[in-house]
Specification:
The chain has about 80 residues and is mainly alpha-helical. It is about 45% helix and about 0% strand. The protein starts with about 25 loop residues before the first helix and ends with a helix.
Length: about 80
């Protein structure tokens, strides 16, 4: 069974890239897009039939620091990994 993100027309919802200015700060517009994408992705994850399997994949070291996996954000997975 595939996740609801598989084949979705906007994979950026789960893996938003935030552009920064020369001082390393994202613009307000970039942040608004990233927040909107995250909210949409999390809403889809909430009802996904493979959410638990996805979270397991997201807990792998190579996936901890980017993307939304199993309905969790990066910081949440890092927290879970440390516990």
């Amino acid at each position: 069974m595939n996740g609801l993100c598989t084949g979705h027309d906007n994979p950026d919802l789960w893996f938003s890239e935030i552009e920064s200015d020369s001082k390393g700060r994202p613009s307000n517009a970039e942040l608004k897009v990233a927040i909107s994408n995250s909210r949409q992705a999390l809403a889809i994850c909430k009802v996904c039939p493979v959410k638990d399997e996805c979270l397991t994949e997201g807990m792998k070291p190579e996936n901890l620091d980017h993307g939304i996996w199993g309905g969790t954000l990066t910081g949440e997975r890092v927290d879970l990994h440390i516990e």
